Amino acid sequence: MFYRDERLALFIDGSNLYAAAKSLGFDIDYKLLRTEFMRRGKLLRAFYYTALLENDEYSPIRPLVDWLNYNGFTMVTKAAKEYTDSMGRKKVKGNMDIELAVNAMELAPHVDHMVIFSGDGDYRPLIESLQRQGVRVSVVSTIRSQPPMISDELRRQADNFIELDELRDVVGRPPRPEDENAPAMYPDPEPVD
């Protein structure tokens, strides 16, 4: 699926990848992930996309964002929006689809292969456009969770589907026990389109 002389770029939808790995019972070791894809080709960029709650004194994702920023990842962040749904529950919205799509389109003339870590069906038109520009696109997510974390349309559009569970031994580590009082790293994912 990969060629050693290919110019690669990684696009990581942070909350989507976190939810997929959590559903499979492991955490991602981002140093190992970056090393694995450097081994597979010429890694030009590794983007990580996440929304941050700006008004929190402590965000559980802040240490990860800082670590990634100092360890070869290009961070793309924006402020998350808090709102109350019709049932009176507090919700957080921080969709990064547009930012990821814009970066992918800008980088398309400079890479041979893009790897998108997300199962979000909204990326299908992006993948189709990248393919028309001659870029091969792999998608990393899982069909082994209940429900599957990837939309069928996205999996069919991609040149390659990489099952996240099959990367577990290469990029995974056991999950840390969560403190019951600590805020969740990401809100529960929205259903796959």
Structural summary, described in words:
With 193 residues, the chain is of the alpha/beta class. The protein has a single domain (7-54, 62-82, 90-173), classed as 5'-nuclease (Rossmann fold), CATH 3.40.50.1010. It has 7 helices and 10 strands. The strands form 3 sheets. Strands 4-3-1-7-8-9 form a 6-stranded parallel beta sheet, sandwiched between helices. It has a two-stranded antiparallel sheet with strand order 2-10. A two-stranded antiparallel sheet has the order 5-6. The longest helix is centred in the first third of the chain and has 11 residues, at 14-24. It is globular and about 50 Å long. The model is unreliable at 179-183 (pLDDT under 50).
Helix segment count?
7
| Structural class computed from helices and strand pairing | alpha/beta
Silhouette: globular
Estimated share of beta-strand residues: 25-35%
Q: What is the percent of helical residues? A: 25-40%
What string gives the helices and strands in order? EHEHEHEEEHEHEHEHE
| Alpha carbon gyration radius | 16 Å
User: Could you tell me how far the N terminus lies from the C terminus, measured between alpha carbons in angstroms?
Assistant: 26 Å
Low-confidence stretches: 179-183
Placed side by side, the strands forming the largest sheet appear as: 4-3-1-7-8-9
- Which fold does the CATH topology refer to? Rossmann fold
CATH second-level architecture:
3-Layer(aba) Sandwich
Biggest sheet record? 6 strands, parallel
| Number of E strands | 10
CATH superfamily: 5'-nuclease
Mean pLDDT: 89
